[in-house]
Amino acid sequence: MQNRNTKKKGLLAVVLAAGLAFSVVTATAPSASAATKITKIGVAFDLGGRDIPGFNQLAYFGARDYVKTHKGVKIQELQAALSDTDATREERLRLLATSGSNPIIAVGFTYASSLKIVAAEFPDVKFGIVDDSTVVLPNVQGIVFAEQEGSFLVGAAAALKSKTGNVGFIGGVQTPLIQKFEAGYAAGAKSVNKKIKVQVSYLSVFPDFSGFNDPAKGEEAARGMFDNGADVVYSAAGGSGAGAHKAALAMKKWSIGVDADEWAFPSNKAYKSVILTSMLKKVDVGVLAFINSIDKGTFKSGSVTFNLKNGGIGYSTSGGRVSSYKKKMDTLIAGIVKGKIKVPSKPAM
Amino acid sequence: MKSRIFWGIVAPVAAIVTSLLLISGILLLKHTSPVDILKAMIDYGFSPRNIVAELNIASGYYIAGVAAAIGFKMMLFNIGIDGQYRLAVFFAAVVGGLFTLPPVLHVTLIILVGAIVGGLWGSIAGYLKVKRGISEVISNIMLNAIAAGLVAYLLQPTRLGEQAEGSNNLNTPIIAPSGQLPTIPFLGGQIHGFIIFTVFIGLAYWVLLNKSTFGFNLRATGLSFKAARAGGVNAPKMIFVTMALSGAIAGLTGMGTLLSETHSYSISFPSGYALTGLALALLGRNHPVGIAFAAYFWAFLDRSAGVLDLNGVPKEIITIMQGTIVLSIVVAYEIVKRINKQQEQKLVGSASATLKVSATTEGEASA
Questions:
Q1: Within a domain: B364
Q2: For B96, which of A335, B28, B32, B54 is 20 to 30 Å away at the CA?
Q3: Are residues A67 and A181 in the same domain?
Q4: Pairing assessment for the beta strands A40-44 and A74-78 based on DSSP bridges
Q5: Is the Cβ of B278 closer than 8 Å to some Cβ of chain A?
Q6: Chain A contact for B270, CB < 8 A?
Q7: Keywords in UniProt for this one (chain B) (predicted)?
Q8: Is 60 exceeded by the pLDDT of residue B250?
């Protein structure tokens, strides 16, 4: 699926160790947890599933990375469907728990209310939930990300690269989560160029989640933005982002990827020349940290926020197209980490 | 009459068997034993906890199926169930969350809002068809998109929705306990109280269609618009009313989940009922009992699909199975239709022969 060389893995491990040390842990109840012998890891996916690049896939990679270094550990995966009710999601988590998975990772905030019920039923099983921090139970950890911070950085990079003073943002589905990406991106672009124009477009509205996996829609939206004078477009739209890359290639503009380093995707080989950078939301790091904490007996309930400070969020430099902005980017990172730059998580209305 | 019931059962069973054979073939190609998989599905799907869940899911499916069936009887393809359902359950949740009322009144109000909103949304397509000649398929698909957009717009925290701290979900305010429908304890689980209404909807559908003038007019218009019109039926009005009625029923699809489970509408509320409803109406042959079996079967498949993933079989195989069932059912009904026609022709043939004979004898007698 995705080209991930081992060197980078080593680096990730370092980042991860650092991340763990600095993680903003808001522990609600100190849960004394002894090290657990992990034999099966359960993963309940959100819509789209493991095979589409994005946070589902990264969550899987996190579990897979653990399995790579721990022989004999199995991963049990369950997929989501559009017709899912909370009861269906509940049952999915319960099925994983009863068939021996511990820990279990629920990918996506849609699992929150189901997890509240199932986690209470299985106090000995540890649960991690990606993108939600509302489940407060001694055996649950929320794995959340400061997406706006990374988006701020790629927004700044887009503004630095833009010659027209006009950049675009493509969101997959209009939800508060994706609006965090938008807010950070617009703020980042404006921090570099106050007068910059930021075009915003969402590909679909829920419950139509096709916007996360529709390259044709992504291409159309990107073309529209390029026609309207933009020369850099950032897509926080999962699989649809490939369409934006395609449009950028055809119209000789720039495209920015999301979640993972899209420049390194084999499927994006043809678009390498137009991918400026990618906003990195390291769900894999978050999930691996969660699993490791159980393995080592350092699990903490509450929510763990991954951000620029602990390396759970970042931007990619593959291809070297933003290397000339390194100084500026480092200043911005320092500003955000120190709290001098406040990054909004909601778009200006 | 007897043979009609017989064929009505044979056709869906044949369709299910066909799809089972196809799936077995695919599984064998993947070197997996179909018997083991089927056994795992049955063991899991018929565990008490899952039977309860399946009944709850099936209850929603059933209502969508009836909504589709009432359209089919009029030769209307109501693909707008999705939009009607979504808008209805959204507004029902919003109105329900506004205030507290005496329990029975509160629940009744929520259900009524759902039916009315769904009915109004459905009637748009009905109006466009009758007055402007626009195919209900086209207008309904567009109305689905509009409904989705409208709900997404209104669910924003600045409008009718709210967002909990630390959550990425959006939801409508929680409905007060007076607007929640109690559940029925069964097999250690909780069945949505709305299942009683579901049964009632099925009964009402049967009575309306078979025992009322309205139902007769509806079926007549569905069979032949021109003939019904010539027979004194206000056919355009019938089309409009049927579309609205189908929408009103579709508007009740999510009520079980809303009233007994989530008590609010949110991003994670289920969707995708239109295609399921249409498939179930086809499989159940628009018959209230047939649709009930089909709905439970569908819920069972959906539910037990989870165990396939754990056995290393992609659960998409269930989608393939559901797809082939729908395809084979269409084929099977077509075959049955032809067989019936042949039989009818034979009957008509022999009847007219006897008629001829009696006519000649009469003629001879008078001569």
A1: no
A2: B54
A3: no
A4: parallel
A5: no
A6: yes
A7: Cell membrane, Membrane, Transmembrane, Transmembrane helix
A8: yes
